[in-house]
Amino acid sequence: MRCLRxxxxxxxxxxxxxxxxxxxTLCQPNASNGYRVRISIKTALGNQAYEWNENEMxxxxxxxxxxxxxxxxxxxxxxxxxxxxNQTRRxxxxxxxxxxxxxxxxxxxxxxxxxxxxxRHRINNAFLLTDRTLEFLGIYPTxxxxxxxDTPPWLIVFxxxxxxxxxxxxxxxxxxxxxxxxxxKGMMEDGQDEExxxxxxxxxxxxxxxxxxxxxxxxxxxxxx
Amino acid sequence: MRLQLPNPGLEDRILSHEELDKLETEEAGSGDxxxxxxxxxxxxxxxGFCVGLGNVWRFPYLCxxxxxxxxxxxxxxxxxxxxxxxLHLEFAIGQRLRKGSLGVWSTIHPYLAGVGIASMFVSxxxxxxxxxIMAWVMWYLFNSFQETLPWSxxxxxxxxxxxxxxxxxxxxxxxxxYRETLNSTPDIGxxxxxxxxxxxxxxxxxxxxxxxxxxxxxxTGKAVYVTSTLPYVVLSIFLIRGLTLKGSLSGVVFLFTPxxxxxxxxxxxxxxxxxVFYSFSIAFGGLISFSSYNSVHNNCEQDAVIISxxxxxxxxxxxxxxxxxxxxxxxxxxxxxxxxxxxxxxxxFDLPEGNVTESNYDQVLQSLNGTHPEVIQGxxxxxxxxxxxxxxxxxGTGLAFIVFTEAITKMPASPVWSVLFFIMLFxxxxxxxxxxxEGVLVPLQDLGxxxxxxxxxxxxxxxxxxxxxxxxxxxxxxxxYWLSLFDSYGxxxxxxxxxxxxMVGVVYLYGIDRFNDDIEFMxxxxxxxxxxxxxxxxxxxxxxxxxVFYFITKVTETLLYKTWNPESENFPTLEEKPYPAWIYVxxxxxxxxxxxxxxxxxxxxxxxxxx
Lengths: 225, 611
Prior knowledge:
The complex is a heterodimer of chains A (225) and B (611). Chain A has 225 residues and is an alpha+beta fold. Helix content of chain A is 51%, strand content 12%. A 4-stranded antiparallel β-sheet of chain A has the order 2-3-1-4, sandwiched between helices. In chain A, strands 5-6 form a two-stranded antiparallel ribbon. Helix content of chain B is 70%, strand content 1%. Chain B is built from 27 helices and 2 strands. Chain B starts with 9 loop residues before the first helix and ends with a helix. Chain B has a two-stranded antiparallel sheet. In chain B, helix 3 packs across helix 22, helix 8 packs across helix 11 (196-213) and helix 8 (113-142) crosses helix 25. The interface between A and B is medium-sized, with 29 and 35 residues.
């Protein structure tokens, strides 16, 4: 009995010792199912750049596990399922994802890509980085949908400008037309006055505007001497 | 005994000094000749006419490519010897004879009427294409009222997988200019049809022009308060903004660093002379018209000197402003180039960030080249040189619509700067258009093309509508190529011929003695020795030299034009193609007909007199 327990303990110890080694062999640079990640913290954050250390690496693995959970809609993925290797000072490293059910099986590249694409925004935000500064080499960022307004903005501005200009042109044309008509009417009225005055003095052909004829004065009454 | 060609009947054709004085007192407030409301309107209109797009996009390029600060020397010398005398001559003769350009030349001698007709043709050609540039400016202005400027990023392709390939290969600003604005065809022969958005902008440009000239100088005089002063305000705002940007001072230093060896190059003097000449808008007939609306005793000598000084100052000021922005752009490009190279090095050699910076880039590159030469070769690193970026000198529409718009996208609050810049360009161009159209309308009236009973509004309206319809050539797909054609041939050689004939006509046909007496009558003192020498010998000689060299250059050069061809090998570099054969006919019409109008009309009148 004691021998059996010892054997089991030795086997467990061997397994525990061997598992990381096994995992390490799964993760290799240029692995068929692995992706290379490149992080440029100083470019993104400048003075507020943080140091890349083991804790940040832990956060990365946790975020990747989150992405896998979200994609497969299960709760089986854990930090241990994300294996990282070949870290450089640039800060770049390779990672692979192993299946929670079978530790020797790697999740295929395409699925990892889809999981990352789905949660890319969340992964970026966890590190205060962008698509350009947190690069998954081989996974291209999805392009943002362009905002297409119904009427192009330039047509609106054009409409305003051309409306104002045509209104101004019409106003100026109308005002000059009114001015001309007023001037014409003014000249016509002057002419009318002249005619009226001439009309008043003619009746039966005799011009009543004649000179006073002294031959018809009334001072006969005063000279009957 | 001064040289004076026989000119019988001159006394009968012109008003004597006594008649002019009588006209002056009678005409106060009445009469059918328009008058300026005040001196300010006249000065602003002339300044607006002279200061145009050329001051902003031709002078800085010439300055930078011909030895920087050293270019000022030929420019200022020729300004004084060529620009000021010609300007004074046009002002004085217009004020004295009180007619538009056609009237003035027919009065001096009936055989000289061809000069007036040639002026009219040239003004017409230039009005046609100049307003198309205004349409382009309006298009960019309308598009500036958006948060992200449309030329700051490439649009996505049809299935949203990537950027449009034409844009990716060139740049967003190039793509917006050649594809979304012009929709340029690869060849002048393919006309590509009318581009509806440009037609709308052309109509709006002509409509704005019409409303400003609807009643002649009555409305123009009010419009110039805005169009002539706003550019200076905007230039000052840009100067302040530009000086606070990184790299602006390197641009200004590059512009003004003198290279005195350029002064020995005859092209420098030729270009300076041509720039002074075209910048003053002489020989268009517009200045003669504007000056004829003045009172007889206006001091035209002072006006000429003031306007020349303002024009010269504006050229230098605009060049400074433009080069602060170009310096900023060049520094930005240089930083991006260097940053790109640094990133490539960091990524290839897995060095931590911050190990390679701009200051130690050269050392690191050298040491890496020593240890891993093959790797470095394979990287194809670009050479980044600030001076190369600065001397990517661009002029003309390329400066305004490609280089400057790109620089604006890099500035914070880009839409504001874009709107300001294009309003400034629009005002500069509109005030020049006032003079161009004046040079077309007044000769048409003098020729009696429109019945005298028609109101002014209808004559200007009909002219604008007809010019708009003919201007539809320039809003086709190949419109840009037509515009360069008109610009190179319609607006260059004929003007030089007209200006030369003007000088000879006034000095030797009208008579320098009579002209001196007229000026003494108008402003109170005889023109001094400087004017005598320049009018009689120096300026005509300079005109002749420039004309001969220009003519020889134009005639001997192989006619090539640059096209935007996405299928060419060196895309995005513009592909140079030779013109098709039928273009030569067009060139002859553009340059030949105005030039031949001068002797042609003289011969025609001669024949009529003999018959």
